[in-house]
Design goal:
Number of helices: 2
Strand content: 35-45%
Shape: elongated
Oligomer: single chain
Radius of gyration: 25 Å
Distance between the termini: 39 Å
Helix content: under 10%
Largest sheet: 6 strands, antiparallel
Order of helices and strands: EEEEEEHEEEEEEEEEH
Structural class: mainly beta
């Protein structure tokens, strides 16, 4: 479980600036992403976000891609997160119509040493498993589910890429925003919960006591602190 009390999280990039830690750029030849700019008017975290448009006639390819064209100045040592951690960032789709949202196939995140050595994972939902909406969407990418290409080095991550894949039906859309990439490790937690089986009969689970006759082999398996709840229920019946 990833919680605020987890085993640690780290900001990979604030995405407040194009050049403050490496250089972010849009792929204007191989993708439909137009020139990437800083947006100081709308941000999910910090003072700014990064913004670009989609021009579907620009490349003829059905995706829009931004990436670190110059490696991060301060690389990320993610050795403790490898194969267990999750990466997350904010994607603003405020200008998308419901029809355009339906054209999105998935969002891909790549992280690694360079454009040839990286891990990649995709998602087509927000972090809670819901549909993408015309608002800020937080996206989650699990390292354990990622595909490895080449020989990336988890101790020195300095290349990142965000790619929006869509169908051939996609139309032009403006003001796509991205903000703050973070990496998390989950917190191991032991959860105690009730099932529908509250009674054992000679060691076999069953949902309730036999009501017609008393069977002394039947035992209530509720924790002791909840016995009064059971007694109150019995009294009501």
């Amino acid at each position: 479980i990833i919680t605020s009390l987890g085993q640690g999280d780290e900001v990979v990039h604030e995405m407040d600036s194009l050049t403050s830690n490496g250089v972010w750029a849009s792929d204007t030849s191989g993708s439909d992403a137009t020139t990437l700019t800083e947006d100081t008017t709308k941000a999910k975290t910090g003072s700014s976000s990064l913004k670009f448009n989609i021009d579907v006639s620009q490349s003829g390819n059905n995706y829009a891609r931004i990436y670190t064209s110059t490696a991060l100045t301060t690389s990320i040592d993610a050795s403790d997160y490898e194969d267990t951690g999750s990466l997350r960032f904010w994607l603003g789709l405020h200008s998308f119509s419901s029809t355009q949202l339906g054209y999105i196939t998935n969002i891909e995140l790549r992280w690694g040493s360079d454009s040839s050595n990286y891990w990649s994972d995709t998602t087509s939902t927000n972090i809670t498993g819901g549909s993408l909406t015309a608002a800020w969407n937080r996206l989650n990418f699990n390292w354990s589910e990622a595909t490895e290409s080449g020989s990336p080095d988890a101790s020195a991550l300095d290349y990142f890429e965000i790619k929006i894949n869509y169908s051939v039906s996609m139309t032009d859309v403006n003001n796509i925003r991205v903000d703050q990439i973070k990496i998390f490790n989950p917190q191991d937690m032991e959860l105690v919960y009730f099932s529908k089986y509250l009674v054992t009969k000679s060691g076999v689970l069953q949902q309730h006591f036999t009501t017609s006759t008393v069977d002394t082999t039947e035992l209530l398996i509720l924790p002791d602190q909840h016995l009064n709840l059971f007694i109150n229920l019995a009294l009501q019946i």
